[in-house]
Design a protein that fits this description.
Shape: elongated
Number of helices: 6
Structural class: alpha/beta
Oligomer: single chain
Distance between the termini: 15 Å
Strand content: 25-35%
CATH class: Alpha Beta
Helix content: 25-40%
CATH architecture: Alpha-Beta Complex
Order of helices and strands: EHEHEEHEEHEHH
Number of domains: 1
CATH topology: Maf protein
Largest sheet: 7 strands, mixed
């Protein structure tokens, strides 16, 4: 059974690739799915004090987000939807991970912003990159913070009938 990632996220593709899963990436997913397939879609947001923070739209947005996180804990929430075709059997779930940020001073924030790493990332940081130095502790799934909760996704895949034996070694 084919796996199709309905996302252009390089981070989600890297998580699946590094876990040894064979998959394709499709923009027009349903139109390109031929034969038995499972489509994986996901989206990640960051939540602090009940406020949903997506990707920064500007340097000022990114600076504001990092200042808000400084010395505090926030949630990273990823919604995942899987659909098995042609039956259209679905599995959906939400994964939440708590991220504890160290206090950041103005210079640390400015240096991090200069790396260009914060842009195109929910919450304006990448734990798998330079921002990892500012995160002393998490509670929950690391891969959820990167963009796809791997273990929970694999459980849902198995529930939909996918088996690893179908994957080339």
């Amino acid at each position: 059974m084919k796996l199709i990632l309905a996302s252009s996220s390089e981070r989600r593709a890297r998580i699946l690739h590094d876990a040894g899963l064979s998959f394709s990436v499709a923009d027009l997913v349903a139109a390109r799915a031929v034969g038995p397939s499972i489509i994986i879609a996901a989206d990640t947001v960051v939540v602090l004090d009940g406020q949903v923070l997506g990707k920064p739209r500007s340097t000022d947005d990114a600076r504001r987000m990092l200042q808000l996180f400084s010395g505090r804990t926030h949630s990273v929430v990823t919604g995942v939807s899987l659909v098995r075709l042609p039956e259209i059997e679905r599995r959906q779930f939400v994964e939440t991970t708590l991220v504890h940020f160290a206090p950041l001073n103005r210079d640390e924030i400015s240096r991090y912003l200069a790396t260009e790493e914060p842009y195109d990332k929910a919450g304006a940081y990448a734990i798998q990159g330079r921002a990892g130095r500012y995160i002393p502790r998490i509670e929950g799934c690391y891969f959820n913070i990167v963009g796809l909760p791997l273990s929970h996704t694999l459980t849902a895949l198995h529930e939909l009938g996918w088996t690893e034996e179908e994957e080339p070694l």
